Amino acid sequence: MNYTSIIGIVAGLFTACSLLPQLIKIIKEKKVEDLSIGMFVTLMIGLALWITYGILKNDLPIIATNVFSLLLNISILILRFKYSRN
Amino acid sequence: MNYTSIIGIVAGLFTACSLLPQLIKIIKEKKVEDLSIGMFVTLMIGLALWITYGILKNDLPIIATNVFSLLLNISILILRFKYSRN
User: Fold this and answer.
1) Contacts of B33 in chain A (CB under 8 A)
2) Complex ipTM, two decimals?
3) Residue in chain A nearest B57 by alpha carbon
4) Residue A4: pLDDT band by 50, 70, 90 thresholds?
5) Distance, in angstroms, between A83 CA and closest chain B CA?
6) Residues in B lying within 8 Å of A, measured between beta carbons
7) What percentage of chain B exceeds 90 in pLDDT?
8) CA-wise closest residue to A14 among A59, A75, A68
9) What is the nearest CA distance from A73 to chain B, expressed in angstroms?
10) What confidence tens digit (pLDDT) does each residue in B24-62 have?
11) Nearest to A43 among B15, B25, B29 (CB)
């Protein structure tokens, strides 16, 4: 594996894990009003398309990192609606 | 261009544009307390690494979509600190 591939994998891990601090913050504070539903819905569509792309290209790192992101994203969206005061 | 590439490009556009609704919401409402700083810092590192990866692979779509995301991300982070009540 060359260093370009390693940078790609590390980049994927960072973007995939970026939703984790937001999920932890929501679970701790149960406050979601300032979060944009549009952001997480748009991201969810994008991630589903990346998974489709990974499946078509038979690229396991793309599939794995985006499935992980999608699960975090869906969890955030569910809590966004659950804790919404309206 | 085959349909797999088109799916990849559309996926990139969705993930790149996902930060836009959050940025608009912050500008409108000036409320940021529920947003995780850790999320946007982690994402910023990931996006910078994706841009590095795109430069090393000489892949313009990867560079362009991630530069766009990085600019949105930096704008959100600046406003996150600006509008923080603390």
Assistant:
1) 31, 34
2) 0.87
3) A4
4) confident
5) 12
6) 4, 7-8, 10-22, 24-26, 29, 31-40, 42-43, 45-47, 49-50, 52-53, 56-57
7) 74
8) A68
9) 12
10) 999 999 999 999 999 999 999 999 999 999 899 888 888
11) B15
Helix/strand/coil (H, E, C) string of chain B? CCHHHHHHHHHHHHHHHCHHHHHHHHHHHCCCCCCCHHHHHHHHHHHHHHHHHHHHHCCHHHHHHHHHHHHHHHHHHHHHHHCCCC
How many residues are recorded in chain A? 86
User: Which domains are assigned to chain A?
Assistant: 3-82 (1.20.1280.290)
User: Residue A8 carries which DSSP code?
Assistant: H
* Lookup result for tokens 């790192």: A61
